[in-house]
Design goal:
By secondary structure, the protein is an alpha+beta fold. The protein contains two helices and eleven strands. Strands 5, 6, 8, 10 and 11 form a five-stranded antiparallel beta sheet that branches. Strands 1-4-9-7 form a four-stranded antiparallel beta sheet. A two-stranded antiparallel ribbon has the order 2-3.
Amino acid sequence: MEVVITDVDIVKWWGAIIATIALGWNIISYKLNAPKIVIRLTYPICFLDSRVLSTETENGNSSTELVSYCLVEIINRGKYPTTIYKIEASVTSKDKLNTHISAQNFMFHNEVKLPVSLGVGEMISCRVESDNIKLLAKHGAVFIKVYSSQSDKPTKVKIKTTA
């Protein structure tokens, strides 16, 4: 049996090879250019508008103790926009029970409300009281988790606590 390859067969094979290469290139390109969420934490930190815990006056000098916070900055370092739809502080204890602080406990800056669209290079920030983080830290390592439209899995960062 003799195999005969016609000009049409060569064109079919050439088209299939080019289409496969193009598909592979598109997948790689999307993976390289997809939104990349970066989370920066500053813990503990006080703000000028922090809640006042106590005020003491001694020898005419007054001192004020303010609530400390964990500052969370969320940055899109990718080449496409994404939507942030959930943020939480959570801990998975040794008995595999999840404990978390939901978005209601986070105070967003600049009147941001979830869900929020995060363009290329844009940043949003929020804060949560340190007391809440310390309560979670009693049960294990505390993570800040940010959920976005680009992925089913959250982007997470561990908070370095001294509890």
